[in-house]
Amino acid sequence: MAERAEAGGAPALTWLSIVRIHMLTLLRSIESFYPTYYRSMIPGTAEEARVPCCCQLSVGEERRRLEEEEERERRRREEEEEEERRREQEEADRLQREEHERAMERLRRDKQESERKRAEERRIAEEREAAQAREMEEKFRRQQEMAAQRQAQREEERRKKEEARRLEEERRKAEERRREEEERRREEELRQEEERLRAEQQRLEEELRRKEQDERRRHEEEQEAQRRLEEEALRTRKAKPGPGPARRALADDAFDLLRGSEDSDEEEEEAPRGAGRPRKQEAKGKSGRSSKAKGTKKTPSHVDNAFAFLAGACEEDGSEDDGEEAWEAAILSLEQGQKKEKEKEVKAPRRAPKAPAPAAPAASAASSSAPKRKPARTGAWVQKAFMALGCDKDDSDESEEEDASPPEQKRAADFQLVKLAGAIAKKIDDIHND
To answer: Residue 60: how many CB atoms within 10 A of its CB?
Structure first.
């Protein structure tokens, strides 16, 4: 019914309308069944029941009338029922048709949907196949590209290996050329070094010869100075009364020690030079004194004055005035000489000797024959000088017995003699080292 109402036909039957129809049918059947005098008992028939009896029909007529009415009502109900059945059948047919139409529509829609799905599936399958085909083509293309890349890489590696071999060959050749050039340069440097060493050897030999000549000339000058000093000492001895033999021996030992011409030192110093004096002359000139090299000015220095003072102190005749004047002159000369030496050292400081260049074996052999410097023995010379002069502090009692000078003069003489002997020893060391 609801579908019929939706379809636009007769109004749909509801349960309320069905109950209403049944109630009306029941009332009509009751009115047709009960007689008229009973109608007063039925609601709505009281007016008819109050109708007078004369006015009422007979029972037979009433019965016929009721039967006719009932027949009419029955036919009417049958017609209504038939109509209702017809309407219900039509409604059922309509509903069935609508249901059929809806089913057909559903079938049509399902068919269309299935066709659409099949078409979609076919499209998806075609797209999948196309994608697979494209993927296969892309894979094949990538394989081709990878194969081409591998081939290009192999070609590049082969080219790089060839380039590396070529560069290695060039580097090896360049290394060989550099090594050959290095060998040639080293040989040239060795040759130049040999030439330089030969020139250095010649220069050293020439310098050695020149030094030997200078040494020989200086030795001759020393002999000449020694001879002059001996003559001067001889004149001094002749002018003054000579002391005893013990004092003269002490003076000779003092000169011998202060000059540094001991037998062992003289032999060690003169032996390598090859130009020394004979042993007889060496023994004869033991008491000689050193002098400056040839070509220098023979001016008396503070050391020469000290030598002269020592000679005078050792050979004086006991006069205190002459001894004090000699002491003062020697000390004054010593102080002046020390000041001059300090000024020279300040103005021209000594430079450190340069390291000698490596010499050849021949040059080394030639230089080994040159005179070597002896180490200074200043302390021993000063001590021996004190002992020779009788100023040893350990033997002060004996020196006081031999020398009759006062104690104050003796102490001053000892103090000044220490300074004087130190300067003399320094000068002797310088001469000895030169």
So the answer is: 8
pTM equals 0.22
- Mean pLDDT per 10-residue interval, the chain, length 434 residues: 46 70 75 54 47 50 76 81 83 84 85 87 89 90 91 91 91 91 91 90 90 90 86 74 49 53 45 43 41 42 52 45 51 65 63 43 40 44 50 43 53 62 67 63
Long-range contacts of residues 365-373, Cβ cutoff 8 Å, at least 24 apart? 366/201, 366/204, 366/205, 366/208, 367/204, 367/208, 369/208, 369/272, 370/208, 370/211, 370/272, 371/215, 371/269, 371/272, 371/273, 372/272, 373/432, 373/433
Extract the tokens encoding 293.
Answer: 């090299």
User: In this structure, what token pair is assigned to residue 113?
Assistant: 């949907």
Domain definitions of the chain by residue range: 2-124, 195-346+358-433
Inter-CA distances, 85 with 8, 24, 73, 96, 422, Å: 19, 18, 17, 15, 171
